[in-house]
Amino acid sequence: MSPDLKTILIIDDDPGIRGLLTDYLEDQGFQAEAFATCRSAEARLRRGSADLVLLDLKLPSESGLVFLQELRRSMQTPVIMLTGASEEADRIVGLELGADDYVTKPFSPRELLARVRAVLRRSGPVAEAAPDPAPLASESYTFSGWTLKVIGRRLISPLGTTVNLSNHEFNLLCALSRNMNTPLSRNELIDLSRVSGDEVFDRSVDVLIFRLRQKIEPDPASPQTLKTVRNVGYVLVDGGGPDAPSEGA
Q1: End-to-end distance of the chain based on CA atoms, in angstroms?
Q2: Which residues of 98-120 are buried (b: 16+ CB within 10 A; e: fewer)?
Q3: Which residues carry this modification: 4-aspartylphosphate (predicted)?
Q4: Is the whole model's pTM more than 0.85, yes or no?
Q5: Looking at the domain that runs over 166-236, which CATH code has it been given?
Q6: 102-138 confidence digits (pLDDT tens)
Q7: What is the tens place of the pLDDT at every residue in 134-171?
Q8: Is 145:216 a contact under the CB 8 Å cutoff?
Q9: Residue 71 to residue 67: CA distance in whole angstroms
Q10: Where are the chain's structural domains?
Q11: CATH fold of 7-128
Q12: CA separation for the pair 70, 62 (Å, rounded)
């Protein structure tokens, strides 16, 4: 195997899925390694890093969520969750624990491949080096006690502390701030925040919105500042501005 190939670990108790994904990903130019248990994958990660993990959340004798939590304590390897259609609560917990995306079973290998490429691109150095929207010399925005300073790329809380944002989180929040109280569709947010690429999906925006709410909302389950606008997309509402018609999360 070439050392330049991206290494993907597959954790799933179903041998059919392990075989299918291993063959498909290797055909697409990745190095794929499959494991039936989290413990065997954990032992592999102790021997060397991987570029991405595909993690089945529902394993017979162990919890994929517990493995994800343990993984995040020591490394930031991107994780895509493989979940059932009825496992919404687990998906939410997984995102809170730091998963990067999810795919619902049964899934198309082509869709999974697209999400793998998108997550790798967002997590790689090329994505982090993407150009920022050109700022004005003193450009900053305030909303609900928060201050977003474009120069210096800083988000300051109402208590005066700096909150860390990823490159994509910052660009998305900047796009929303520049259009305060104006609902924006997912496609508009992708264009305005440069969260773009051949295989980026609407869900990329949804995951970033979820993470921003964890950082700026007192109650992320009932957002008052970063709202969902039914049949449109999302809007950033200043605490002193008009409410947007929303459906909560």
Answers
A1: 44
A2: bbbbbbeeeeeeeebbbbbbbbb
A3: 56
A4: no
A5: 1.10.10.10
A6: 888 888 888 899 889 888 887 765 333 344 444 444 5
A7: 444 457 899 999 999 988 888 999 999 999 888 788 88
A8: no
A9: 6
A10: 7-128, 166-236
A11: Rossmann fold (3.40.50)
A12: 13
